[in-house]
Design brief:
Elements lengths: L2 H9 L13 H25 L3 E5 L4 H8 L10 E6 L15 H4 L7
Antiparallel strand pairs: 1-2
Length: 111
C-alpha cells in the first residue's frame, strides 16, 4: 500500500474517496500538482501577509530537480521558493502595477 492511499483518509475524512482515483494515475498526478500549486499560493500569500520577501521560481528543469533531489521517491517538484524572509529595503523590487480585482473578474450571483 502506498503513502498516497494512506493519505486520503487522513486529509479527506468525510468520505472514503479513494475509489474515485483507483487505477487513474494521470488523474492522481493532475490533482496532486493542482493542489500542490494551490498550497504554494497560500504559502506565498502568508509570507506576503507577514511582510516577507518571497522569490517563487517557476520555469525550471523539474525533471532535473526531481533526479537530483527526489531520486527513488514518489515526489515531484512543481516550483521552488528561492528566498523567504526580510529583505534589505534598498534592494527590494517594488511591486509591479496590477489590475483592480473588478477590472479582471465578473461575479455572477445565482438566485
Amino acid at each position: 500500500m502506498s503513502w498516497r492511499s494512506l493519505s486520503m483518509p487522513k486529509l479527506f475524512p468525510r468520505i472514503d474517496a479513494r475509489f474515485s482515483f483507483a487505477g487513474k494515475a494521470g488523474d492522481i498526478e493532475t490533482v496532486a500538482l493542482r493542489n500542490g500549486r494551490l498550497q504554494g499560493a497560500y504559502f506565498n500569500l502568508a509570507g506576503r501577509a507577514i511582510g516577507f520577501v518571497r522569490e517563487l521560481i517557476t520555469g525550471l528543469d523539474n525533471a532535473g530537480i526531481d533526479r537530483e533531489c527526489f531520486a527513488g521517491r514518489e515526489v515531484k517538484s512543481s516550483f521552488i521558493c528561492g528566498n523567504l524572509g526580510y529583505g534589505d529595503p534598498s534592494g527590494i523590487f517594488a511591486h509591479s502595477p496590477h489590475f483592480a480585482f473588478y477590472t479582471m473578474a465578473i461575479i455572477i450571483r445565482s438566485v
